[in-house]
Amino acid sequence: MLQLDVQSIDLFYGAAQALRGVSLQAQRGKVTAVLGRNGVGKTSLMRAITGQQAISAGSIWLGDQPIEAKQSFERARMGIGFVPQGREIFPLLTVRENLETGFAALARQEHSVPDFIFDLFPVLADMKQRRGGDLSGGQQQQLAIARALVMRPKLLILDEPTEGIQPSVIKDIGRAISFLREKQTMAIVLVEQYFDFARELCDSYVVMDRGHIVLAGEKSAMVEADVRKHLSV
User: How far apart are CA 133 and CA 131, in angstroms?
Assistant: First the structure.
């Protein structure tokens, strides 16, 4: 089932155009990787999908509903979970309190943290009473992912989850993404510069350069050399 359908969107910051006719699809039970160097429009695309930045052309659909006119909080309530670049956890709140901020998008009867989250990230169960700011970078990244999962998303967006993270935690995050894909309950969009990580997990991919999609396809048809030349500095 197609959960996300981005159709030919443009996005501007003032007079500067960040996205030019960008299209992207993500299916439930699949991982779509968005690849590219810094500054090519990947985060702008995520801001457009989540409603943090308005588009000037094109359309964005979640399931069978157009959402480009919806505000960010409305899109969250419709099922978009976002793990932003830089994590953006609340440093003075405890791990438990950070997780409970995900309740804001849910009906009151759904105000609980699913048990599988602590199975995915057992360190969070051990640190429920620790402040978010006292966690390591890798632990904060796990907390940011867990907070998005509390929302029971239909679409999970991960913006560079491996950035600045130690290898052992990158493996944990990879296992978590594989588990979530196998649950078949959500579509996953994975924004990455780390090619090997993205290739291992994705089912399909797009490569961005200068605000455009320059390559796209199924993982099975990916030509590594063509993708890597758009990732090298």
Answer: 5
Residue pair 190/204 in contact (Cβ under 8 Å)? The answer is: no
Selecting from 3.40.190.10, 3.40.50.300, 1.10.10.60, 3.20.20.70, what CATH number does the domain 2-228 have?
A: 3.40.50.300
69-97: per-residue pLDDT in tens?
999 999 999 999 999 988 889 999 999 99
Contact 132, 88 (CB under 8 A): no
**Catalytic site includes residue 160:** yes
**Does this model's pTM top 0.85?**
yes
Separation CA 209–CA 45 (nearest Å): 12
Active-site residue among 110, 160, 163, 182? 160
What φ, ψ does residue 144 adopt, rounded to 5°? -65, -40
